[in-house]
Structure prediction request, 271 residues.
Amino acid sequence: MKKKILSIVSLVLIAVVAVSVFAACGNNNADTTKKLTMATNAAFPPYEYKDGDDFAGIDVEIAGKLAEKLGMELEIIDTEFGSIVGGVETGKYDMGMAGMTVTEERLKSVNFSTSYAKGVQSVIVLENSEYKSYEDFYTGYDADGDPTGVIEGLKIGVQQDTTGDIYSSDVPKKWGFGEESVIRYKTGADAVSALVAGKVTAVIIDNEPAKSYVAANEGLKILDTTYVEEDYAICVAKENTELLENINKALAELTADGTIPAIIEKYIPSK
Prediction:
């Protein structure tokens, strides 16, 4: 009798251990779903912005489709634009996706995917502004047709570390306005607020966010002339070549099947 009781106890213990192991395995499978961490700056509509507590926008939806293709769980981290490249470079984030263009300076730190969207840098001014084009900000041109100087007191508001900042800060010879003429803000919204308050002459920012800011603030307009045209891409750490290859493959497939064009059309209707 004693032996039989021991056998029953042993069977119960084995069953408990088996259930525990099975449960542990199940939990491990759930916990090991690899995350794809995306760093962005959610103040750049319609590419990325907050809708209540949720993230929304072109980049957000494309990133979600990328994660699905890669069999990963997307995690979005909202941070300052200027910290994205450094965070990706050090491995803090898997990728950076924030209406970001490829520049020689950024390529020193990270690699970029193929382009998934095109952007245009536009100039916002007050509605009653005397300026009709960004070319009106220059005082003269050399024999090659390049600017030689800028008007006195010119102040260009930009979101720090963005394409608008990079190009505007360059010398007039390269169609910039010089460091001394550029005022940097943490967000595009801050730059636009400065324009409304009369603290800057103009704001240079991507055309789609520019439209949103003009719609939300009376007394502003976008100049007809385009300042810069650019391609947006995803930045990845230089050593993470496998992820870059997978992202490029997924982007190609999502473009071919119409997914990415449909997402862009949703936010930026062509008609």
Observations:
- The domain at 120-230 is CATH 3.40.190.10 (D-Maltodextrin-Binding Protein; domain 2).
- The first strand starts at residue 35 and ends at 40.
- The chain has nine helices and 16 strands.
